[in-house]
């Protein structure tokens, strides 16, 4: 049924119109990017860290198994390559545009929320001791007993950004969105029992989970930071995906809402009726007035 209803909507034929329609969405996306940059520059809250609290903060200071720059490549660039490949096959600019816009919103909204919480909470990382005292000689205030860090300021500043995990939230935001996307494209929930399709759906989530595990293994985060980051990213990804696409278990879960809207509008003048089983046509009209003329001239 999906193939029978397919119509090509290319970048050349519908791209400009689509960009004009969503211009405000792209402008807000730029605002989110700027806000995310500002949040990265803000000095986080410096939580009180007493001498007796250092027991759980003396893990080794290590590098990142998954560098920060690698997360956008894994969580955004690779999915976008798949989006483009699907466009080449189906030639549906609505799918391409909404998939890219959706995953970018998923990433940036997640980034803003994550960094705002980081700055507000200021939880020390598991390796905070060695960030604060790189020479191993602890110094505390004689009155308040708070730490008096002697390390590099930028390293100490980063040490107050443990909760929640940014690597984790970004990974689950991008790959969570991609998992939703693939579930729709392979018709994972079409009730035909092809359970092997779930491997395609779960693979992006597995990659995101491995990124999360690496943050604990590198002693950059506590397990609670990773759990919260994954939850934030996955929830935002779900909201962003469902804004543009039907749920994967829906009959028309393979395509974006906009595609079916345009398809219905293009066929309505030809048929004079929209009761041909299209996605939008299954929805009841918001307001419908019906007048029935009886044979005797009365109406009701």
Question: How would you summarize what this structure contains?
Answer:
The protein is mainly α and 300 residues long. It contains ten helices and no strands. This is Phosphatidic acid phosphatase type 2/haloperoxidase domain-containing protein.
Structure characterization notes:
It holds the Pfam family PAP2. With 300 residues, the protein is mostly helical. It has a domain of 158 residues. The protein is 56% helix and 0% strand. The chain is elongated. The chain starts with 10 loop residues before the first helix and ends in a 29-residue tail after the last helix. The C terminus is likely disordered.
Look at the helices and sheets and give the structural class: mainly alpha
Approximately what portion of the residues adopt beta-strand conformation?
A: under 5%
Low-pLDDT parts are: 272-300
Average pLDDT figure: 85
Order of helices and strands: HHHHHHHHHH
Radius of gyration over all CA atoms, rounded: 25 Å
